[in-house]
């Protein structure tokens, strides 16, 4: 899906910052697209951007109202419906990352049809994907993989996009999750694709490109996670990555939501390369990204130094310490991509 920018971020009356994490992610990485926020009385989240009415947002060129919230069950509260209908009638498209489809709510569906506006259900796609073919295609691809879910795979590729472009490399972020689709304006939520078509969907997200162009593909889940390994494997085969970066959160002992022990970084590297060779025999690991938020700076730097020594790969916290080492390694491994 292609979502028109700029965005007016709708937060409703969410009770805290965490409930608006999708909106915060968009503002963190695409602030130029977020012209303002729309909040209802009692909202406890604040994105730090202007509060705008619908007329004010339209006057500033807003094109899409983004429902930037998450909640249990992915439902749309009844008292938000009239606000969304008003936005549609004012001339805005609407995009949502909730599980409920916007078009399943009669008042919203009727308003969109009557006013010629587009509804984007980011967790669901209208695209019909083919099965993956595994045929090599031009272009370079990097995939983030993880020792677990929610360890920084999306933030790593977004930081890499920024860092690589600053160095003159041709690189684009490719979204495979709902927040990533909002950030890029394009993509597909892979965890909502029928299993047979996951690899094909990733091939669609990252099609043939210039031989020296980098697609930076957002990883999902973990090959070791009993709940999500199927999604991770389909994504790996469809991405055909030339390079993988392993993402890790160092304070966990078990994976999220299950009792299984967290795999080691070495185990993730070895299994990823073994399985990834099915569609790219030349796959290689080029770095380690650590979410060091729970560590103080001295602890974080010591851990990164130890990981570099153990694995022979650059290790960093991309948000805290930048991605220069990761980019240096990519340029060294793929010098042709550094040429203009």
UniProtKB/TrEMBL annotation:
Record-annotated D-glutamate N-acetyltransferase-like C-terminal domain positions: 129-327
NCBIfam families attached to this UniProt entry: DgcN
InterPro entries, A to Z: DgcN-like, DgcN-like_C, DgcN-like_N, P-loop_NTPase
SUPFAM superfamilies recorded: P-loop containing nucleoside triphosphate hydrolases (SSF52540)
The protein's name in its UniProt record: DUF1611 domain-containing protein
D-glutamate N-acetyltransferase-like N-terminal domain boundaries: 43-124
Alphabetical list of Pfam families matching this protein: DUF1611, DUF1611_N
PANTHER family linked: DUF1611 DOMAIN-CONTAINING PROTEIN, GLL3100 PROTEIN
Gene3D superfamilies reported for this sequence: NAD(P)-binding Rossmann-like Domain, P-loop containing nucleotide triphosphate hydrolases
């Amino acid at each position: 899906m292609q979502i028109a920018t700029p965005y007016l971020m709708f937060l409703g009356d969410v009770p805290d910052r965490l409930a608006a994490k999708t909106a915060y992610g968009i503002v963190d990485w695409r602030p130029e697209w977020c012209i303002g926020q729309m909040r209802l009385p009692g909202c406890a989240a604040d994105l730090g951007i202007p509060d705008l009415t619908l007329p004010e947002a339209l006057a500033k060129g807003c094109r899409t109202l983004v429902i930037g919230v998450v909640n249990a069950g992915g439902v749309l509260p009844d008292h938000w419906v009239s606000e969304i209908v008003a936005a549609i009638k004012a001339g805005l498209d609407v995009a949502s990352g909730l599980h409920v489809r916007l078009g399943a709510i009669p008042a919203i569906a009727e308003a969109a049809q009557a006013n010629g506006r587009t509804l984007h259900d980011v967790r669901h796609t209208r695209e019909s994907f083919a099965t993956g073919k595994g045929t090599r295609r031009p272009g370079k691809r990097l995939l983030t993989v993880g020792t677990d879910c929610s360890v920084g795979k999306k933030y790593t590729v977004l930081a890499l996009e920024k860092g690589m472009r600053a160095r003159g490399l041709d690189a684009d972020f490719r979204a495979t999750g709902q927040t990533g689709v909002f950030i890029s304006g394009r993509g597909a939520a892979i965890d909502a694709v029928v299993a047979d078509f996951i690899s094909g969907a990733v091939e669609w997200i990252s099609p043939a490109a210039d031989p020296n162009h980098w697609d930076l593909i957002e990883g999902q889940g973990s090959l070791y996670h009993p709940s999500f390994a199927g999604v991770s494997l389909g994504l790996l085969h469809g991405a055909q990555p030339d390079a993988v970066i392993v993402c890790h959160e160092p304070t966990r002992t078990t994976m999220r939501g299950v009792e299984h022990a967290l795999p080691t970084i070495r185990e993730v590297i070895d299994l990823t390369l073994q399985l990834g060779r099915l569609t790219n025999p030349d796959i290689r690991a080029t770095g380690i990204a650590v979410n060091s938020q729970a560590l103080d700076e001295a602890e974080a730097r010591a851990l990164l130094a130890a990981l570099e020594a153990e694995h022979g790969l650059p290790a960093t916290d991309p948000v805290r310490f930048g991605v220069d080492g990761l980019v240096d390694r990519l340029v060294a491994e793929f010098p042709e991509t550094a040429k203009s």
